[in-house]
Amino acid sequence: MSKNETFGKQKDFRKFENCFPLSKVQEIRKIKIMKKILLTLLLAILTSINSFSQEKVTWHTDANAALQLAIKENKKVMFFFTGSDWCGWCIKLQKEVFQTDDFKEWSAEVILIELDYPRRTAQTDEVKAQNNQLQQMFGVRGYPAVHFVNVEKLDNGKMNLYNLGKTGYVRGGPDKWLEVANSILEKAI
Predict the structure, then answer these.
(1) How does 15-47 read in b/e, with b if 16+ C-beta sit within 10 Å?
(2) Range of the domain at 16
(3) How many domains would you assign to the chain?
């Protein structure tokens, strides 16, 4: 930028100052700054509200840790056997039920364990062994399979799992699925 251009801009600013006293110019600047601050605060509030409303459901993959938590919190357990990257009905159950606000609210009363049997996603040998053992224990032959259990800790440190019932995909969305799940859990009370 040349001196002439700078001088010209300064002249323009002086013309602006002549139209508005210096205190008015400072006032306008303060207003602009306040608008920017308010806009920033508004965006921050909206972002935090959005992230709060999208809080996710906690799915455990370590069955032993989840069962210990269920004992500690005196909650029932839901095992979700799924093929997350290949099973169409599993994906449909996830989208229609498990990713809804109704399910999120309902799930606060149970411990959720996801046992995944993917075809394209790598898993550790420990997770594969755990999932296969639980699949055999519950006799799961198809997906999705959802089993509800009550956990009891024995004096010798081992745990007993009491099978309360099972379900899978239920047509009708979250209301119908939760109705079936609640009927299984109520029978156990």
Answers:
(1) eeeeeeeeeeeeeeeeeeeeeeeeeeeeeeeee
(2) 3-53
(3) 2
pTM of the model: 0.71
Give the CATH number for residue 155. Answer: 3.40.30.10
Structure token pair of residue 169: 């995909």
CB 93, CB 143: distance < 8 Å = no
- pLDDT tens digit string along 138-182? 999 999 999 999 999 999 989 999 999 999 999 999 999 999 999
Count of alpha carbons within 13 angstroms of residue 80, beta-carbon side: 25
- Return the closest-CA partner of residue 80 out of 100, 59, 101: 59
Residues 176 and 84 in one domain: yes
Alpha carbon distance 126, 124 (integer Å): 5
Two structure tokens written together for 1: 């930028």
